[in-house]
TrEMBL record, chain A:
This is Gaa1-like GPI transamidase component. Residues 1-20 are annotated as: Disordered. The chain crosses the membrane at residues 34-57, 382-412, 457-478, 490-510, 585-606, 626-646. The keyword Membrane applies. GO terms for cellular component: GPI-anchor transamidase complex. Keywords: Membrane, Transmembrane, Transmembrane helix. It comes from Powellomyces hirtus.
Automatic annotation (TrEMBL), chain B:
The chain crosses the membrane at residues 35-57, 268-292, 298-324, 336-358, 370-389, 398-418, 424-452, 464-488, 494-512. GO terms for biological process: attachment of GPI anchor to protein; GPI anchor biosynthetic process. This is Phosphatidylinositol glycan, class U. It comes from Powellomyces hirtus. Pfam families: PIG-U (PF06728). The lineage of its organism: Eukaryota, Fungi, Fungi incertae sedis, Chytridiomycota, Chytridiomycota incertae sedis. InterPro entries: PIG-U. It is a multi-pass membrane protein. The keyword 4Fe-4S does not apply. One of its GO terms (cellular component) is GPI-anchor transamidase complex. Pathway: Glycolipid biosynthesis; glycosylphosphatidylinositol-anchor biosynthesis. It is found in: Endoplasmic reticulum membrane.
Length: 650, 541
């Protein structure tokens, strides 16, 4: 095997400078590796506080970019507006008629027939789509009505949707919103400068109606066993480019307009759409709110400014993290349609004046004109941003580092566990000495070419499998559990808490006990590493990777899950001390889904937490929101793994 | 299975070879070890028949490439069955004989065929692993010529160490390996009285009744170290920590390799997507398997089929010929001279058969032409598509040559350097194909990962295992995610996905170089016992 000897056989080595340099290289590599390893072992937790502090700095103005329109064709607010008091009169009269109709009947078919006849009256192709939603509570019957206004200058390949739910979330009739939709249907037919079709859509009940309509519009058909059954659509237009959803639950007396941007699973529309709508509203002098707060021009102090923006950011992240549909616009993102909801606010603190209906109408008209100008899809601006105010944003380049820093702590922890399980306790490598007249160096005694301990693999695999199987089983059983909760009149929060606590107890005590009964209980021996290190290595790597991957889809959820779970996983290890055992269990409990729900109910009341459980389960079964399966398939099983680690043998 | 001539050839001591035969006897295996393999099969059956995973995965870019996609095969089949030339539409790029297979197959049997193919691949890998196991048992760690104890210091230039520390004293140099004394936690646990009593009882129990060792203890070295030597495996004398410079190797369990293949998520999704890549994989595995048996004709036939199906496996000639020359005790050049005409004859016969089937030579540009000139730039996990989308047209032929030569150019140096380890050459060649071929999919990765798991003795010497497998894990999550962001959500773009395919490729390349380095290092240490025991290493590792 002279092959592997390289220079050894041929040249007589001498201590030339090159040889000395070569000698230094493996040594330096070992020294650097040793110190990197030592530093990471001791200080990798530092990324977590750095990430948290960075997050706390995000509300400061230095991190905000003023929103500006990147797409030149949009030219927001640069057109002449034609929306006049005559059109406002139409809005008001429609509002009265809608209210009147809503007080007379509760049948969605009659509502839809009214909208259809009005849209037909403007010369549009209008029709009705019926749908039925079967749930545990019984069947819900609904109807969408919509009309298509063909653009005078277009070829019918692109369309803009103006939609409105018949009722808002609180069950109040959205009379003004429907009034604006009908008034705009009348308004757009008067002009010939439109180059995209308009689709006027009124859904009831929503947002399920929007889902039925969108699926039918994009050619899907319900399967025979699906909960939602709907008719196909009679008339079509082109590819929908943008969608505006109007929710005006008042009588025309508003203080501000709120924008709702985050859609299903926290997916955002293109920043240009948001900026255009906000700019158009601000040109008309309408205060634009985000999460029910209008940012004033001036603040008393920097501290109040910080608090105000921190408050909005927290609300924003909360809403995005849940990823549940807040209004109709949320469902459009799935079909690559940029959409936004405008919701009127009646009263805000510090409002100087009321917004007139004509201002709102002109703002909407102005936004529609901008979208009408577009020659291609919105693609210039970001899709990844966080909004501290309606008129500014934090781009991905600024907010992603703290998100990654939080999760990368887990990846480093996994690396540390890998090292610790392989080669425990190294000392700083001593310098190797070259052997005279040979190409060899004498290796210092504590170095070896191979890892010194075997990593057990059977127990870790079984543990990971059992925990993930529990999560999958829980997801499979969740409809049944919810059904029992509803029909046994049990609070879903109690039900969830019961299931989660019982399982955590099983996993925290039974699996470690079983492991102790088995041969090869996972304890370390002279030649094998303890199994808990490998379990923790795998669990940290998986959670870290999951949270980093999640940060590209829904950074807020990634933050919300990383903040409690990273310390819990950093702490988790078998211990003999009662105090640290208690601390670890408390940390793991706080990071578990039930701990998070408990924290929510302590902070905002039990009702919020109950509502959250119900909505997230419904969001998964009705709209395909990922929060529920993600928690059950990835997050909660790993939390169980944490419980198992605490109970394992050293 | 032939009697193994190589053990005699390697002059294994008599006592050792007797134990070796008892250990290598496949029938002595507990049927329990086959459970994971059957779990893999049952998992496929459940996923095929009770979920819609198959129809979902058929459309995924990670598993369905233009040259292996089931959807395209159906298109070609439809055209063929309706009397239209199957390559006419420019959609179908697969070998014509595949049409002949599926032409007469009832649809209900198609999933079963793919599951059977995967199972057959796994059985082939198990047979290869049995050979590897025998090699492992027969492996000799030459004894040092002089009985130097480790205490003897080597003559060094400057005897005074720069960092004087108690650990550097020679007496300690053995002790620290016996017991990881420097780590407080570990020390505490091993010396903890109730636990250690409990454990010692278990160890004795295990060593007395060797046959009922549970599988999760199979890799536990504590049993091997502390048990009596009569029941320890073949290289038991070296298992004693008297020579801490020699690694303690666990003998391979062949069924585990089959399980590693069948339970690998990459191979599961490849099977579910009904990718015709499986035909190539089974031909590759069959080629290696028959080369191990010394059956030149069958081996060459299988490799010719693999090369016929997807062109690149022609490279598998290298490990096959190395194996044939080892197994038939002939020089490599002689083996090559006898095998190459056979390979070419089989290949020509297969092409001729294809011509008879479709009646024209049009299939040549539509199959091998597409593989070589890469006209279909549908995104996949490889390195070609993005590069050739971005490239100016006039540079395309040049870079096509560069890329395609790069696939093939590594095989000869690898075969030369590792000629004494043909299975490692097989691993390296399949890995290079999986990384650099024009339309790779995760099925290629699944195959070479199975070969990788056969080389368990190298794990100890590898430096970047954590990095590699974390990167593969990240790429496997982020790849589909970024593809979704790019193609469906519209919020990402092609660079997102391409970056992840680069990570995937980089992780695989690091894995390949790391294993190569580990093999070289291990071989050096094995064959230089004196230098090893004097704790000497090459300056330039």
């Amino acid at each position: 095997m002279a092959l592997f000897r390289r220079k050894a056989a041929s040249a007589q080595p001498s201590d030339t400078p090159a040889a000395v340099k070569e000698l230094r290289r493996p040594h330096m590599r070992r020294v650097v590796a040793y110190y990197v390893r030592k530093t990471l072992t001791l200080f990798s937790w530092i990324f977590y506080p750095v990430g948290v502090i960075w997050l706390l700095l995000l509300p400061r103005d230095e991190f905000h970019h003023k929103a500006s329109v990147d797409e030149n064709a949009l030219l927001p607010g640069q057109t002449t507006k034609y929306f006049s008091s005559m059109d406002m009169y139409a809005v008001n009269s429609y509002r009265l008629r809608v209210n009147q109709l809503a007080s007379q009947t509760r049948s969605p078919a009659e509502y839809a027939a009214f909208i259809q006849s009005e849209l037909n009256g403007f010369g549009m192709e209008a029709s009705i789509q019926n749908f039925v939603l079967a749930t545990n509570q019984g069947a819900t019957i609904g109807a969408n009505s919509y009309g298509i206004s063909r653009a005078a200058r277009g070829d019918g390949t692109e369309a803009i949707v103006i939609s409105s739910p018949w009722m808002d979330d609180g069950g109040k009739v959205n009379a003004d919103g429907v009034g604006y939709v009908l008034a705009f249907a009348k308004f757009v037919t008067k002009f010939s400068h439109w180059s995209k079709d308009f689709i006027f859509l009124v859904t009831h009940p929503s947002p399920m109606g929007t889902r039925a309509w969108l699926e039918a519009y994009h050619g899907e058909q319900p399967g025979p066993n699906d909960a939602l059954q709907y008719d196909p659509l009679e008339t079509h237009s082109g590819a929908i480019q943008e969608a505006l959803n109007l929710e005006f639950g008042g009588e025309g007396d508003y203080a501000a307009i709120e924008i709702l941007v985050d859609g299903l699973n926290g997916q955002l529309p293109n920043a240009d759409l948001v900026t255009t709508v906000v700019n158009c509203a601000q040109y008309e002098g309408i205060p634009v709110a985000l999460h029910q707060a209008v940012t004033p021009e001036k603040f008393d102090s920097n501290w109040t400014r910080y608090l105000h923006k921190a408050d909005i950011l927290a609300e924003y992240m909360k809403s995005q993290a849940l990823g549940l549909p807040r209004s109709d616009h949320a469902l459009y993102a799935k079909y690559h349609i940029e959409s936004i909801t405008l919701r009127a606010i009646k009263d805000i603190p510090g409002a100087q004046y009321r917004v007139s209906g004509e201002q709102i109408g002109r703002a909407i008209e102005s936004a529609l004109r901008s979208f009408n100008n577009l020659l291609e899809r919105l693609h210039h601006a970001y899709w990844f941003y966080i909004m501290p105010t309606a008129a500014s944003y934090i781009p991905i380049s600024v907010y992603i580092p703290p998100v990654i820093l939080l999760s990368v702590t887990l990846v480093f922890q996994s690396l540390v566990m890998w090292w610790m399980s392989g080669e425990p306790g190294q000392t700083a490598p001593a310098r190797s000495q070259r052997i005279k007249d040979s190409p060899y160096v004498a290796r210092s005694p504590q170095l070896s070419s191979f890892n010194t301990r075997t990593r057990p693999i059977f127990l870790p695999i079984v543990t990971m499998f059992l925990c993930h199987a529990t999560g999958a089983f829980a997801l499979y059983m969740s409809p049944t559990i919810l059904y029992i909760a509803q029909h046994g009149d049990i609070n879903p929060l109690n039900m969830a808490a019961c299931v989660l606590i019982v399982t955590a107890v099983i996993y925290g005590f039974m699996i470690p006990t079983l492991q102790r009964l088995m041969e090869g209980s996972g304890a370390s021996t002279a030649t094998t590493a303890p199994a808990w290190m490998v379990v923790k290595c795998i669990a940290c790597a998986e959670l870290g990777a999951a949270l980093i991957a999640l940060s590209t889809l829904n950074p807020s959820l990634s933050i919300a899950l990383a903040i409690p779970s990273v310390p819990a996983f950093l702490l988790a290890k078998p211990t003999g001390s009662h105090n640290s055992f208690a601390i670890q269990l408390i940390a793991l409990f706080l990071a578990s889904p039930i701990g998070i729900l408990g924290a929510i109910s302590l902070l905002t009341g039990l009702g919020t937490a109950q509502d959250l459980v119900r909505r997230s389960a419904d969001g998964w079964s009705l709209y395909g929101a990922w929060l529920f399966p993600f928690v059950l398939l990835v997050y909660w099983p790993l939390n169980l793994v944490g419980h198992v680690i605490v109970g394992m043998e050293q | 299975m032939r009697a193994d001539p190589f053990t005699a050839e390697l002059k294994v001591p008599a006592a050792r070879s007797a134990v070796a035969q008892s250990l290598s006897r496949p029938n002595s295996e507990d049927p329990v070890v086959r459970i994971p393999v059957w779990i893999g099969v049952v998992l496929r059956i459940i996923l095929f028949f009770f979920t819609n995973a198959s129809s979902f995965l058929q459309l995924r870019v990670e598993v369905s490439t233009p040259v292996t996609s089931w959807k395209r095969l159906r298109e070609g089949l439809y055209l063929y069955q309706n009397g239209i030339a199957p390559y006419e539409g420019g959609v179908f790029h697969q070998a014509p004989l595949l049409l002949a297979i599926f032409n007469f197959l009832p649809p209900i049997l198609i999933p079963i065929l793919f599951i059977a193919l995967d199972y057959a691949i796994a059985r082939g890998l198990v047979e290869i692993a049995q050979y590897k196991r025998k090699l492992q048992i027969a492996e000799i760690w030459p004894a040092p010529t002089s009985d130097d104890s480790l205490i003897d210091a080597v003559p060094v230039e400057a005897p005074k160490p720069e960092i004087p520390s108690p650990e550097n004293t020679p007496a300690d140099s053995v002790a620290w390996l016996r017991k990881p004394a420097s780590d407080d936690d570990v020390l505490q646990s091993t010396d903890d009285i109730p636990q250690s009593v409990h454990k010692r009882k278990n160890v004795n129990f295990a060593s007395q009744e060797e046959d009922i060792v549970p599988p999760w203890l199979a890799n536990d070295n504590c049993r091997l170290v502390q048990g009596d030597s009569a029941h320890a495996p073949i290289n038991a004398p070296q298992l004693k920590p008297s020579d801490p410079t020699q690694p303690v190797d666990v003998i391979l369990h062949p069924e585990d390799i089959g399980a590693m293949y069948l339970l690998n998520p990459y191979s599961i999704i490849t099977c579910l997507s009904q990718s015709t890549l499986l035909f190539t994989l089974i031909a590759i595995v069959g080629g290696i398997q028959y080369a191990i048996k010394g059956n030149r004709n069958a081996s060459m036939l299988f490799i010719a089929v693999a090369a016929y199906l997807s062109f690149y496996p022609a490279m598998m000639m290298a490990p096959a010929i190395l194996l044939l020359s080892t197994q038939t005790s002939r020089p490599v050049m002689q083996a090559l001279k006898s095998a190459l005409p056979l390979f070419l004859a089989f290949l020509v016969a297969l092409l001729g058969l294809s011509y008879l089937l479709v009646g024209t030579w049009d299939f040549l540009p539509s199959t091998y032409g597409v593989i070589l000139s890469v006209p279909d730039l549908t995104p996949n996990i490889g390195l070609f598509w993005y590069f050739f989308i971005e490239m100016f047209e006039q540079f395309r032929p040049f870079f096509l040559c560069v890329f395609q030569i790069m696939v093939f150019i590594f095989v000869i140096p690898i075969a030369l350097v590792f000629r004494e380890h043909p299975l490692f050459v097989a691993y390296a060649t399949t890995a290079i194909m999986a990384i650099f071929k024009s339309y790779p999919s995760v099925g290629d990765t699944a195959l070479y990962l199975a070969f990788f798991t056969m080389h368990q003795e190298l794990y100890k010497y590898m430096r970047n295992m954590f990095l590699v497998f974390n990167a593969l894990f990240f790429a496997s999550i982020l790849g589909p995610l970024f593809h979704y962001l790019w193609v469906y959500a519209g919020s990402g773009n092609a660079n997102f996905y391409f970056a992840i395919t680069l990570v995937f490729g980089l992780a695989q390349i690091i894995l390949l170089t790391d294993t190569g380095h580990a093999l070289i290092l291990r071989e050096w240490e094995r064959l230089h016992p004196d230098l090893r025991r004097k704790r000497v290493e090459l300056v330039h590792q």
